[in-house]
Specification:
Elements: E1 8-14, E2 17-23, H1 46-59, H2 71-82, H3 98-118
Antiparallel strand pairs: 1-2
Length: about 130
């Protein structure tokens, strides 16, 4: 898996190193127009060549892209299909009119005035040192 999604990959020689190449799932396969690169240009010893041929012979099988499935994509599509469609919200109450806002402001002003009246008045005399 690369990150959270599984991928098909192939390991191939590239410029003296091994390269990891991602492959397509069966439903993503397109016709190959041309091949790129020449594997015959790589330099390998006779022993490495024999070992590679034995390994390839033991793993050799007919390539069938349909045998591999993109389970991540299938599960995602299944989950989307299981979700219920979005519900349209019922009509909401109308937004408050300006008169309600004004009455709230009047109530706040009255509350501030009451608080001021309850506070003891301070003497306006200045102290002298």
């Amino acid at each position: 898996m690369l990150r959270t999604k599984p991928h098909l990959v192939a390991i191939r020689p590239a410029n003296g190193t091994l390269a990891l190449e991602t492959l397509f799932f069966g439903d993503e396969v397109r016709e190959a127009k041309r091949l790129v690169g020449d594997v015959r240009a790589a330099e390998v010893s006779e022993r490495e060549l024999e070992l590679a041929e034995k390994l390839i012979a033991t793993l050799n099988t007919t390539w069938n892209p349909e045998a591999y499935a993109d389970t991540y994509r299938e599960e995602l599509l299944e989950r989307i299909a299981q979700k219920s469609p979005a519900q349209i919200p019922e009509e909401r109450a109308p937004a408050p009119s300006g008169s309600q806002v004004e009455s709230l402001m009047d109530a706040l002003k009255a509350s501030v005035e009451q608080a001021k009246e309850k506070q003891p008045k301070r003497s306006s005399r200045k102290r002298t040192a």
